[in-house]
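[step 3/7] inverse_fold.run input=structure_tokens len=148
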């Protein structure tokens, strides 16, 4: 027999049966955006704190490299939280990280401003994201309801 007469299986897979996947939470999307930007800002802030530290005794008597290590730990916490946002408790972890970033104002006073800005963004994203998710869920549950 030749290859021309041999039937070949269809290379396109059949679509999976079942309901379509649930839409991603707006609250989760907004939280990951805020945390992603915070990774960049915390990295730059750690460099600033390290660069401003005295060479002999750094901030609070610690060596200057401690600010880089602490910044790295906070960055790892932010990145881990982005990955864990599928769990409800990760939003509380996000709040804790906002408090930690705000507390870095004791090390560098400019971080009070940065912490307040990102804390406000986090609060806004939590409130508005939850409201949009509630409205979306209500619209899916009752599609005949007129939207305002």
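[step 3/7] decode complete -> sequence:
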């Amino acid at each position: 027999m030749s290859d021309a007469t041999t039937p070949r299986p269809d290379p396109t897979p059949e679509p999976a049966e079942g309901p379509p996947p649930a839409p991603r939470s707006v609250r989760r999307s907004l939280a990951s955006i805020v945390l992603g930007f915070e990774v960049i800002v915390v990295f730059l802030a750690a460099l600033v704190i390290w660069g401003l530290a005295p060479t002999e005794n750094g901030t609070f008597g610690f060596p200057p490299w401690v600010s880089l290590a602490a910044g790295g730990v906070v960055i790892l916490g932010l990145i881990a939280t982005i990955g864990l946002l599928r769990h409800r408790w990760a939003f509380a972890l996000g709040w804790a990280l906002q408090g930690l970033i705000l507390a870095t104002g004791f090390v560098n006073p400019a971080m009070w401003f940065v912490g307040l800005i990102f804390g406000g963004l986090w609060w806004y994203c939590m409130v508005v994201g939850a409201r949009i998710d509630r409205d979306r869920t209500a619209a899916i549950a009752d599609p005949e309801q007129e939207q305002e």
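[step 4/7] annotate
The chain is about 65% helix and 0% strand.
Residues 26-137 form one domain.
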